[in-house]
Specification:
Radius of gyration: 24 Å
Structural class: mainly alpha
Helix content: 55-70%
Length: 401
């Protein structure tokens, strides 16, 4: 993973605050977001050599404000429009000196996760507007052409054009969409759905950073704490998940000495405090499951009975196919592979390659090697992740007569 520079970290910290200040003043999210991106690019080019200004946020707001008023003037063709732009063109210092509200990051997340947007558009807009990533960076992360991502971002901005800035009246109803978007970003970073790399650490790191920001703003929300704990406990294993050649290393074969103990301790503390409030939600249950894995000193010492109990709770809260698939694995670890295979019979092909991969694993444990080999090969043919393809084909090759 390419390490970020102090300048990049500073820019990503200030990006949502600068955008929030402009949207509050001008009300034009689409134009303001473009102006902020230009200001960020200008800072990235100037600050490393000229030095970081004393008031970096004020510098960014000033530059972005100038860019924005220039854009607005350029697009106004009629006199009435020109008068409106002139009224908006307040002195740069007045905008720059105004401190942004502390919840601008959360307000931007609500805007980016507007219900009119598709999940893919919510993710793209969140990474650009709140994460401060360029369109090119987002396109590389999701392995799509930059032009395709630019169109996706542009359409998303047009859809939220005119939407009021700030927390919506029904913000508590919209919070699950914000958390789900951050969860999807993390999952794509933790296990890429396609491409040559198993993980995209920059993307997972960005999801953790944004979730930390939301947790700081709403520290009493148990599900936000649960999501942050889940990310930390899962990401703690990243260094052990791949071998020297970048190939996948399954959980029971990982070198646990390479797990990030500081992240595990933080994650366990977060989920323990959240669960103590007795308002358990899906993210907290998932985090508790991850904690059981992370705290086990060896695969043999893993408390699968406790994990199965947690999945029993989770599937009552979220009876989705992924949750039921994971529960089937826990059933197999507690009651044997045939019991786990019986659980798979009720699941459908919407799980893609994961269903065949789990079926192959359980069939192999049950001694049905020919059926297991066929399931592994089927799974390998369905995934677009090259490391997963290689892993599944190696498992299949071991079972050939």
């Amino acid at each position: 993973m390419r390490p970020t520079s102090p300048t990049e970290d500073l820019l990503r910290l200030h990006a949502p605050q600068v955008l929030g200040a402009l949207v509050r003043r001008y009300g034009r999210f689409d134009a303001a977001e473009d102006a902020v991106q230009e200001a960020l690019l200008a800072a990235a080019g100037q600050w490393p050599s000229a030095g970081v200004p004393d008031n970096p946020r004020g510098w960014l707001i000033k530059v972005a404000s100038r860019r924005l008023t220039d854009m607005l003037r350029a697009e106004e063709a009629r006199r009435a429009r020109e008068e409106r732009v002139a009224a908006l063109s307040v002195r740069d210092t007045a905008v720059a000196d105004r401190a942004p509200r502390e919840d601008d990051t959360l307000s931007l997340l609500f805007l980016c996760c507007h219900p009119q947007l598709s999940p893919s558009a919510q993710i793209a807009l969140t990474l650009r507007a709140v994460g401060g990533l360029t369109t090119a960076e987002i396109a590389r992360a999701y392995l799509v052409p930059e032009a395709t991502m630019a169109q996706r971002v542009s359409r998303a901005k047009q859809k939220v054009r005119g939407v009021g800035f700030g927390r919506p009246d029904n913000w508590e109803e919209r919070l699950p969409a914000v958390l789900h978007t951050l969860y999807l970003i993390f999952n794509e970073g933790h296990t890429a759905t396609s491409g040559p790399a198993l993980q995209r650490r920059d993307l997972a790191g960005e999801a953790i950073r944004l979730t930390r920001a939301v947790h700081r703003l709403l520290p009493d929300d148990c599900e936000i704490a649960g999501l942050l704990a889940l990310m930390l406990l899962t990401d703690a294993r990243r260094d052990a998940r791949t071998g020297p050649d970048g190939d996948l290393v399954p959980l029971d074969e990982q070198d646990r000495a390479r797990w990030d103990r500081a992240a595990i301790e933080e994650g366990v503390a977060l989920v323990t405090r959240a669960l103590a409030r007795r308002r358990a939600g899906p993210y907290q249950i998932r985090a508790a499951t991850a904690a059981v894995h992370d705290e086990a000193p060896s695969p043999e010492a893993t408390d699968w009975q406790e994990i199965l109990g947690l999945y029993d709770v989770l599937v009552r809260l979220v009876p989705g196919p992924v949750e039921r698939l994971n529960r089937a694995v826990a059933v197999a670890m507690v009651h044997g592979p045939r019991a786990g295979l019986a659980e798979l019979d009720s699941l459908t092909g919407e799980l893609g390659h994961r269903l065949d991969a789990v079926r192959g694993h359980l069939l192999e444990r049950a001694g049905a090697y020919e059926e297991a080999r066929a399931a592994y090969e089927s799974a390998a043919g369905k995934t677009l992740s090259l490391p997963e393809q290689r892993y599944l084909r190696r498992r299949a090759a071991r079972l050939r007569p």
